[in-house]
Amino acid sequence: MTGLIFTKRLFKRIKYLPLFIHEAAIWQYETCQKCGNAFRIRWHVNDEIWQKVMNVKDDSGGSMCLDCFVKKAEKISIILKDTDIRMELFYGD
Ligand SMILES: [Zn+2]
């Protein structure tokens, strides 16, 4: 990774912080337990994948944004395929 990409990412993250805070204050629905992102993409994987990645024996484990879930899966060498994930846009009930 070049220093330029790092600088761009860091700058964008800092620039986005006020919007993140606003979203945290107004969004009453899905929230990632890892990064705190308030997300509008509900997603599903089958129980077997969920349980392996979240290290649970049922559908517990909380709520996680897809990006954090993919990274968590990578850490235990589970590489997801497009077909493993079903997505659904969500704007609140
Ligand atoms: Zn997240």
Description:
This protein is mostly helical. The protein contains three helices and two strands, in the order H-E-H-H-E. A two-stranded antiparallel ribbon has the order 1-2. The chain is globular and about 40 Å long. The model has no long low-confidence stretch (mean pLDDT 94). Bound molecules: zinc ion. Zinc ion binds at residues 32, 34-35, 37, 64-65, 67-68. The site of zinc ion (ZN) has 8 residues, from helix 3.
Q: Would you spell out the secondary-structure blueprint of this structure?
A:
Elements: H1 3-26, E1 41-44, H2 47-54, H3 66-75, E2 86-89
The structure holds zinc ion (ZN).
* Biggest sheet record: 2 strands, antiparallel
Bound molecules: zinc ion
Distance between the termini: 41 Å
Judging from the principal axes of the Cα atoms, what is the shape? globular
Beta percentage is: 5-15%
The overall strand count is 2
| Total of helices | 3
Helix and strand string, N-terminal first? HEHHE
Salient structural properties:
binds zinc ion; 93 residues; globular; mainly alpha; 3 helices; two-stranded antiparallel sheet; single chain
Summarize the structure.
Helix content is 45%, strand content 9%. It is mainly α.
